[in-house]
Every structure is written in structure tokens, then in C-alpha cells.
Model the fold of this input.
Amino acid sequence: MEKIDHHIPYTKHSIDNDDIDQVIRILKGTYLTTGPEVKVFEENFAKRIGTKYAVACSSGTAALHLLALTVENAEGGNFITCPLTFVADANCAKYVGAEVKFADINLDTWNISIESIKETVDSKTKAVVVTHFAGLPAMINEIEEFCKNEGIFLIEDACHSPGATLNEKNTGTFGDAAIFSLHPAKHIAVGEGGIITTNDENLYEKLLVLRNHGLESWQKRKGHVYDIKELGFNYRMTDSEAALGNSQIKKLEESLKRRRSIANFYYKNIKWDHFEYQKLSENTTHAYHLFPVTVDEKINRTDFMDYLREYNIGATIHYPLINALSLYSDSNQKTPNSKNIGHRILSIPMYPTLLDNEVEYVVEVINSYYKS
Done:
């Protein structure tokens, strides 16, 4: 096997000349921050996802914080999420004085389990945060019905899944609201941006105020002075980021098509005797933000990742379990499925500019591990 002489990362952002031209257009214009381009981006994003409203902000984590701030009586209550996700999904509860409870995942999809949510909910549960892990939709429809019946605020973390569907309905359209990250690793990359989608007009109006220091829009103010009625934050998006987002969103379908092509090659050509992948159901489509695999118990994950890196293949762990992190070490909840998957999981390269020969090389190196 001939070794490729360059690094193949687990992910890479994709910026072309059209993207660059749109950012330059803004830099040469009148507005740099929170001008008309942000509003256009919000409208374009909401239209593509299928909601009435979208609120752009400075990061996916800022989006989570804003939504946590809208949860009624959050302080002293608890939010439920699962351990196999990025830590921001738990941190947003702590931002508003709530505790975090962990529900377990399903062993087939590696997404949060509705059964475990029902077992974890108590009288103090105020919100549930559901991640579509790696881009595969969770059973968000069932979770949505349960949360409505229980009066629990449902936050859909769709950062991994723009363009993914459940029953032909886009992720980002379920629950009270959804958040997306626009980090360079994501499908639509603007830098450190994020965006919230919702169909709730009152929530939308509240988020606009909270995003901007608690200030009402100029159109709603009386006279030349303003008043502040509640604590807000500077979580605004810049116009240059919005311009990049408007350019990137046009390429979402192309990105999804390429990611799915790469995934299909992996499915067909990796020797799965000693590895496992997420199981798709018939009513879902996967967005493939990541391509995670688990190694079997006979393989030392660290040794395997080191082997891949010897051949210039980037492999990263998504994610260290939240309830194993020092900040959450006092959690005494048992999540055996998360533990099972979490200590064996890693992500192999997945991004739309991955070349065919690089995809073939990744497969060849993985399949050669037992021959080494």
C-alpha cells in the first residue's frame, strides 16, 4: 500500500471564490455588523429548513444560551440531554441555573432514547435537548409528542443535520425551537456563527431582543431614547458572516450529495467484521456531518487511531462522554449504552471536498489494520 504524502483530516471547511466574493462585497459596502444581509440570511435559512422564523447569532452555543434563557422557571429545575454529544448541550442548563440530567442512547442509532428520557424526567424537568448525532435524526417526533404532553420545552440540536429528514420533514422544524452551528466543520460555515429556527412568533420576538443587549428594534421604539427591560447579550452576527452563509446555503444540496456518496462507499467497502456504524431506519435521511464508527472490544482504540495517523489519516473522538468530564463528575446516573459506544467510537474523514482517491485510501488503510 502506497502511503499518501499529505494529511487527510476528519473534516475540512469548503470555501470557494463565490464565497470570497460575497464577503468582499460586504467589506466594500456600508454595513459590517447586523445589517440587511443578516435579515436576508435568516429568511433564506428559515425557508430552506421549513420554519417561519430564524434568528442568527454569534455561535451555536450562543443560540443554546438564548433558548435556555426563554425556558420558564429554569433556575432550580433540570434539563435532560444525553452524554454522547458536545458539552454545550449540557452547559446551557448551567448558564441559567438549572441542573443537568442524562438520558441514555439507543445502541443502534447512537441517538438519545425516548424510553430513557421518560425514565429520567421528574417534576423539576424544564427542558430536553436532543442532538441528531453525526447527522442522523433522532426519534424527535416521538420526543416532541411526549414533551408537549408533559409541558416540557424541547430544544432540537440540529447542528449536525441540516438537510436531514425524518418522515420527509426536515430536522430543525420539530419542538419549540432548534439550533444550528455555522462553525467551519459544519455544512454551512461562516466562522463562529449559529442560528435558531422556530415557528413561534412570540419566541422569535423575544430572541431578537435577548440577542441584542435586551434592546427593542428601532422600529418599535418611541422617540430617540431606548429602555432595557431585561438582561440581554451581544450575540449578534456580522453582515460578512451572513454573506458567507447566504453563499454557502446555496451549496447545501451539493454538500449533502457528496457526503452521502462518500458514506455509501464506506458502507460498501470497509470490512465491517471488527467495526460498527450507525443504523439508519427507512424513514430517515442522514446528513453525514460526521462518519463515526466503533471498534470492537478486541481493538485498542488509541492504537487504531495512532495507526491511521501514521498513514496521514485524521481520526477524532466524537465525543468524550459529558458525564465522564470533570465538570460533570458528580453525575451518578447510569448510562450503560453511552458508555458502551463512547469508549469505542471515533470519526473517520467526512467532508465534501474529500477526493475519490482519498476515500479509497482511507478504506484501504482501515481494512489493512489486521494485516499490519
About this structure: The radius of gyration is 21 Å. The mean pLDDT is 96. The domain at 17-249 is CATH 3.40.640.10 (Aspartate Aminotransferase; domain 2). Residues 252-269 form the longest helix (18 residues).
